[in-house]
């Protein structure tokens, strides 16, 4: 099968990628989860939450994430008053903590079936249902498709060579003038096999979105250099 990859830009003022978002603690990881990305892609295609076959096809895509801007981890303190008690004899106040990432920017690369990636390419900018990054209020700040969206490169090569998604001209100019050896590398999180040295488990591979069932996948956390060639002048690489 021909190698194919699809590169997406995840940019928004707020994003939240929870893996334990039940109860009063709504967490977020530091980068998009596979379950969150699959849910977003399923919404683009118009697949229902109970379509486990579509979920499996999307979850089986190899995923790699490059963190182009780490963002800031923030906590939101919520109180909800007059919540009925479980005994039905009164009301109570429920306190919850909700975490999210502010001003984060990610390059998400999917590798796999060329026909499926082409379909996703055709739909993410014209989604069946609205797209959001973890919570319905956290909508994309710019189009998801990058100018180099579809390629025949493996995801690892796209992560290492795709242009930096930073939109701030001053930030790009500062990094361009900085010696390459002084630039901070970009963190990467890539699907891998359990036997890969340094593999870390992540329990976010969706089996059924409707039933909220997941299995464990493994990822390798590493870095890639921010090279001169990745820092564009003029317009950024998002369409």
TrEMBL record:
Chain coiled-coil ranges: none
Source domain of life: Bacteria
UniProt-recorded Gene Ontology molecular function terms: RNA binding
GO BP, one annotated term: maintenance of CRISPR repeat elements
Keyword Lipid metabolism: no
Alphabetically ordered keywords of this record: Antiviral defense
Species of provenance: Saccharothrix saharensis
Gene3D superfamilies: 3.30.70.2660
Entry keyword Transmembrane: no
Name of the featured protein: CRISPR system Cascade subunit CasD
Listed InterPro entries: CRISPR-assoc_prot_Cas5 (IPR021124), CRISPR-assoc_prot_Cas5_N (IPR013422), CRISPR-assoc_prot_CasD (IPR010147)
NCBIfam families registered for this protein in UniProt: casD_Cas5e, CRISPR_cas5
